[in-house]
């Protein structure tokens, strides 16, 4: 058994306390974990190990919260991030359980966010969105539910109209080839590409003086 001889607050990190055992520094703990400890209290080796493990899990949790600060993340993204920080698998599962309980990690909500964000700023085909969400570790069932309301034809139009305006001075064949290639790289199928290119040629290209549809 070892005796707690001193507890001091760290100067740079006020939420952490230094624990001294038998007159020497032993380890530091988050204030929430160190709260029950008192000078004069004795700790076994097993109790010390449990305190250190709980503190490591708390630090991993705080790292995850920092990672989530910038945008929503999938559970797989959080796990990968913590794994890169050398967090143990057991601690990662504990962190994810806490985050799910507070709805700070929710794969269904994340998938909906991802699709909506893409639809607003960088429209993609269902195929491309499906591939992106799989890369984020989202299950197929959740992916399919998130894609139910995606209108690929509308997405293709939104994705291409800015590019079409810049290509409007070209002849029809070049316009069709370049705009079609642009949409193909975003995963759209033949029918969506064909209809979208024709629509945008009518709206942009055919208004050009001397334009001729070949």
Topology record:
Elements: E1 2-9, E2 16-21, E3 24-30, H1 31-34, E4 42-43, H2 45-68, H3 75-84, H4 89-101, H5 107-121, H6 126-135, H7 140-146, H8 152-167, H9 172-185, H10 190-203
Antiparallel strand pairs: 1-2, 1-4, 2-3
Helix pairs in contact: 2-4, 3-4, 5-7, 8-9, 8-10, 9-10
Characterization of this structure:
The chain has helices at 31-34, 45-68, 75-84, 89-101, 107-121, 126-135, 140-146, 152-167, 172-185, 190-203; strands spanning 2-9, 16-21, 24-30, 42-43. The chain is an alpha+beta fold and 214 residues long. The protein has 4 domains: 1-43; 51-105, Arc Repressor Mutant, subunit A; 107-146; 152-207. A 4-stranded antiparallel beta sheet has the order 3-2-1-4. The longest helix is centred in the first third of the chain and has 24 residues, at 45-68. The protein is rod-shaped, with a radius of gyration of 28 Å.
Features:
4-stranded antiparallel beta sheet; 214 residues; 4 strands; alpha+beta; single chain; 4 domains; Arc Repressor Mutant, subunit A
């Amino acid at each position: 058994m070892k005796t707690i001889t001193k507890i001091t607050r760290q100067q740079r990190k006020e939420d952490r306390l230094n624990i001294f055992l038998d007159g020497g520094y032993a380890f530091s703990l988050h204030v929430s974990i160190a709260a029950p400890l008192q000078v004069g209290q004795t700790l076994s080796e097993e109790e010390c190990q449990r305190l250190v493990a709980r503190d490591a899990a708390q630090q991993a949790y705080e790292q995850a919260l920092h990672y989530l600060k910038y945008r929503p993340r999938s559970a797989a993204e959080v796990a990968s991030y913590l794994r890169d920080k050398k967090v143990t698998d057991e601690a990662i599962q504990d962190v994810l359980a806490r985050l799910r309980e507070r709805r700070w990690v929710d794969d269904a909500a994340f998938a909906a966010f991802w699709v909506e964000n893409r639809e607003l700023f960088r429209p993609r085909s269902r195929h491309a969105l499906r591939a992106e969400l799989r890369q984020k570790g989202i299950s197929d069932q959740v992916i399919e539910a998130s894609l139910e309301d995606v209108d690929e034809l509308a997405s293709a139009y939104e994705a291409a109209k800015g590019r079409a305006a810049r290509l409007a001075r070209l002849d029809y064949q070049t316009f069709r080839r370049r705009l079609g290639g642009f949409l193909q790289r975003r995963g759209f199928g033949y029918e969506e590409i064909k209809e979208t290119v024709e629509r945008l040629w009518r709206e942009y290209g055919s208004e050009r003086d001397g334009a001729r549809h070949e």
